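User: quick one, sequence for these tokens?
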């Protein structure tokens, strides 16, 4: 049996159906530790460098139990193909990821989060970034929230649903990934909405939001209420859909809240975040929180959706939400600060349309999990993965 290629969506399906296989990542340990395949369920993952196979083929192959189904991952595909051919020669059922790890990083998995009488709300999970974007469909229109740069996915999804992208919203000026709203607006004519608090100094052709304004579809459907929630950034914005759901950006996470130190103004932004937290505590506890990021798959529910009621979120994070005084909150933020990835400064400039990068460089910048949560748990996770 010859080695075959598989796609990122195939890998996700195998992982979520608990297929019996061994995933072998042949990148160097540094790149592997920065970013690798993760799953909602336990699976066998080995990091055996491509160079190990070149230097000692027998020993490297011997690290994988005979008879295993092997799925190879590498940076750009070429090394994985080389290693897959070695496993094939040794009699393994083996496939390698087409396009390399970047295809896993760009993968979007659509999950129906809710369905109303005349609308559907989708969560688009990006496993490689531990992030979520959202699509709200009514009739022949779809509104998007925090789309990634994988434009073909969103446009293909809209076409499958028989609709067009009419509006695209950003919750803030993203630092951890390259956002897609500007290019989606250019390609589709959709209106690009954002908050002046983050975007005023950018060169983006956006329409400024107003706190409390309502957005609607051409014919019926749910209302979308704009809710300014500054703190993670000065322009952080949440969107309340049908008074049932809150697309919370990096304000409300299932575990933790958005860290306010990424802009280099930890104390100033922490004050805004503290005020927003007090406001959030007064919202309807029955609202379903739809966050922009998660820390790991343990936050997902049984349907593998990242959503919880606001009441549950407040309870899970009461060590944060019950801090009553600003000085104590600032101390909490300082205690949980950690270095941000160097790429974030460049990504901000790209998202502000103040810097251009070639496609390959954008792919490189866009890889890796987010570092947006402010909590001891997030800090511990980072230390564990280092």
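Assistant:
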């Amino acid at each position: 049996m010859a080695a075959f290629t598989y796609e990122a969506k195939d890998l996700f399906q195998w992982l979520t159906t608990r297929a019996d296989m061994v995933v072998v990542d042949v990148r160097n340990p540094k790149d592997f530790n920065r970013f690798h395949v993760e799953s909602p369920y336990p699976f066998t993952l080995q990091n055996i460098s491509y160079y190990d196979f070149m230097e000692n083929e027998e020993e490297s192959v011997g690290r994988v139990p005979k008879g295993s189904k092997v799925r190879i991952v590498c940076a750009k595909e070429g090394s994985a193909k080389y290693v897959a051919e070695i496993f094939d020669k040794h009699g393994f059922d083996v496939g390698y990821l087409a396009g390399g790890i970047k295809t896993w990083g760009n993968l979007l998995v659509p999950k129906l989060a809710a369905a109303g009488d005349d609308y559907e709300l989708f969560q688009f999970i990006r496993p490689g970034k531990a992030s979520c974007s959202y699509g709200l469909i009514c009739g022949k229109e779809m509104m998007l929230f925090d789309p990634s740069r994988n434009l073909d996915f969103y446009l293909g999804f809209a076409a499958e649903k028989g609709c067009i992208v009419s509006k695209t919203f950003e919750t803030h000026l993203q630092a951890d990934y390259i956002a897609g709203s500007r290019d989606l607006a250019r390609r589709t004519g959709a209106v690009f909405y954002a908050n002046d608090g983050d975007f005023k100094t950018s060169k983006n052709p956006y329409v400024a939001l107003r706190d409390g304004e309502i957005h609607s579809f051409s014919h019926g459907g749910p209302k979308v209420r704009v809710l300014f929630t500054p703190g993670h950034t000065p322009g952080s914005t949440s969107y309340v859909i049908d008074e049932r759901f809150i697309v919370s950006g990096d304000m409300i996470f299932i575990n933790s809240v958005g860290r306010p130190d990424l802009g280099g103004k930890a104390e100033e932004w922490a004050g805004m975040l503290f005020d927003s937290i007090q406001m959030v505590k007064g919202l309807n506890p029955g609202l379903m929180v739809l966050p922009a990021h998660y820390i790991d798959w343990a936050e997902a529910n049984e349907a593998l959706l990242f959503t919880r009621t606001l009441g549950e979120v407040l309870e899970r994070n009461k060590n944060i939400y019950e801090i009553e005084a600003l000085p104590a909150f600032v101390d909490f933020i300082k205690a949980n600060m950690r270095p941000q990835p160097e790429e974030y400064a460049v990504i901000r400039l790209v998202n502000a349309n103040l810097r251009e990068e070639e496609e390959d460089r954008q792919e490189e910048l866009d890889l890796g999990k987010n570092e947006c949560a402010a909590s001891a748990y997030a800090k511990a996770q980072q230390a564990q993965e280092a």
